[in-house]
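Treating backbone geometry as a discrete language has practical consequences that deserve illustration. Part of our work consisted of pairing the sequence of a single chain with a tokenised description of its backbone. We regard such an encoding as a compact summary of how the chain folds. The amino acid sequence and the backbone structure tokens for this protein are reproduced below.
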Amino acid sequence: MNLLAANLVDQFYSLIWPLLRISAFLTFASIYSIRAVNLRVRITLALVLTIFLVLQLRLDLPKIDPLTVEGLREIFNQLFIGFTMALIMQLATASVVVAGQAVSNSMGLSIANMIDPTLGSVPLTSQFFTILGTLIFVSTGGDLIVFGILLDSFQYFPIGKTMFSQDLMGKIISWSSIVYVGSVLVSLPVMITLLFVNVGLGFVTRAAPSLNIFSVGFPAMMFTGFLVLWLAIPSILSRIDWLWVQTFNEMRVLMHP
């Protein structure tokens, strides 16, 4: 009986390390950390992936006591690897949200957050772009690609090998520019069109100073914004798809030391 208990403890100490990395990724990743994916789903998914990892890859998992100094260091190491991979996805999702905020501010929809505070701090256009990004992620098989990269990380960064380095920090800082590059690419068609509409409204205001620009400008901006947004949907979808492809490539580069 004591031998069986000792064997179970050894198995637990072996499984806890991949479970920590996978759980950290599912907790912080943009697609899997949303409220729709509740805690029970994430825990079940983490357990299934851990068991699949151990059975299929046949990794030589070291038996490290998590209550020792070495064990605490390894806990932070596994959490850091999972968080770093999730951060790459979070930055890509942030670029879509920033693009929606830029479009919403240009159309005048951001005032809805002041009138109805129950909407929260995320504009409606950002929520729409986020839904589009999630649908593109799932339709292109992004979940399978991400899980494949996550499982490959155990080959390049096995249990006991640290990921933290100066080169890694440089890659993450360089990748953070995608927040601005991606948001500009996604919102560019609508932003350029609304810029010309603003210029036209400025000429109209100078030509007819008695005209109430607020009663004319807001409906014109909203109507033009929705029209251009509807026409630019194919372009926006292709740019969000390009953004996810770049995210997958960055995750692969990050996992290849």
